[in-house]
Write a structure and sequence with these properties.
6-stranded parallel sheet; single chain; 342 residues; 37% helix; 13 helices; alpha/beta
């Protein structure tokens, strides 16, 4: 069951325009990709981990569904920065020089470096929590560059706080492990700090500048936090097993914001479905490849929330999930990953 927590902004079904029925029917009738001219796209992400990889897979499969097929009429140049911002900058410069038909930037750091590298090649950003804080959008939700658009999640902080207090009702202090260098993670911290006092909660932030810092940062919360929360911070997610292992030792439940962190050790997560996020992004890329001016493709928001739970991991972290919480979410202990169900 999917739990939406009353969110009423754009959802997957209404997020973006679809190709016309006439175009789709023609493609099916011909059974070929001949109606689409050959295109080249470049894709970059700050690091490879399951959440970002699923978004990339969704993009590629959406393009294939619209007859842009890799190896036939679509060339894809994918590069990961492996968590290194200097490498991300080098990739951005290379992509800008290559002049592909579109550049897809997956994650906030990647989007920022790509935006700094070119003002001419069309850029579609995705996997962005706060594009305003990242300076990709103005406060009026207008791209800061005319060659850029994209998809963000811009989720309110109240639903995850509701979830935390439902799972750990006696919690007083939330430990927040994050990377100070990621604008989206800093924005979430500010949201937490603003919302927590009214709920009788305290936020204890612990920086982890590199994936290798995650385990130590997590262990520093022993005896100081009742629950651990992390957003889609790429440093943390890329070393999530280290966080989960430390949390298991300390018997502190971890709540996060993506399906795969629960499969990798978290108690629960509330967030958007990564594969669906990629499919919606792919629709935007398709519009660019199909000749639409990027200035006419408005930035979009996807905020349909899905709850993922793991009773097994909850027990390892010292708690038992209430049956009502399990019933509201997708139990990852009993279901296949979304990577195997598409």
């Amino acid at each position: 069951m999917v739990v939406t927590f009353g969110i009423s902004l754009a959802t997957l079904s209404g997020c973006t325009d679809k190709p016309s029925a006439e175009t789709t029917d023609t493609s099916k009738a011909t059974g070929t990709t001949a109606t689409q001219s050959a295109k080249t796209i470049a894709i970059t992400q700050i690091v490879e981990h399951p959440s970002l990889d699923e978004i990339r897979r969704g993009i590629i499969e959406e393009l294939a569904a619209n007859n842009y097929v890799e190896g036939k009429n679509l060339t894809i140049n994918f590069q990961s920065a492996q968590g290194n911002t200097a490498t991300a900058g080098q990739i951005a410069k290379q992509f800008a020089g290559d002049m592909p038909d579109a550049i897809i930037a997956i994650s906030t750091p990647s989007a920022q470096t790509i935006a700094a590298a070119t003002t001419t090649v069309p850029i579609i950003y995705t996997a962005i929590s706060d594009p305003i804080a990242a300076k990709l959008l103005t406060t009026n939700n207008v791209p800061t560059q005319a060659n850029m658009t994209g998809l963000s999640s811009q989720l309110p902080i109240e639903p995850p706080l509701d979830l935390i207090q439902k799972i750990v009702p006696n919690a007083k202090t939330i430990g927040y492990v994050y990377s100070p260098g990621e604008a989206n993670s800093v924005a979430v911290l500010k949201q937490l700090q603003a919302a927590a006092p009214a709920r009788g909660l305290k936020i204890l932030e612990v920086p982890a500048n590199r994936p290798t810092d995650v385990a130590m940062a997590t262990r520093s919360l022993q005896g100081r936090a009742d629950v651990i929360y992390t957003s889609l911070d790429n440093n943390v997610i890329s070393a999530f097993e280290a966080m989960a292992g430390a949390a298991n030792e300390m018997k502190i439940p971890v709540i996060t914001s993506d399906e795969f962190s629960v499969r990798r050790g978290a108690t629960a997560a509330l967030g958007v479905n990564d594969y669906d996020f990629g499919r919606v992004t792919g629709k935007m890329v398709y519009r660019v490849l199909n000749g639409e001016a990027i200035v006419n493709i408005k930035p979009e928001v996807m905020n349909k929330l899905t709850l993922y739970v793991s009773p097994k991991h909850a027990k390892q972290q010292g708690i038992t999930l209430d049956s009502s919480v399990i019933a509201e979410g997708i139990n990852v202990d009993e279901t296949k990953p979304s990577t195997e169900s598409k």
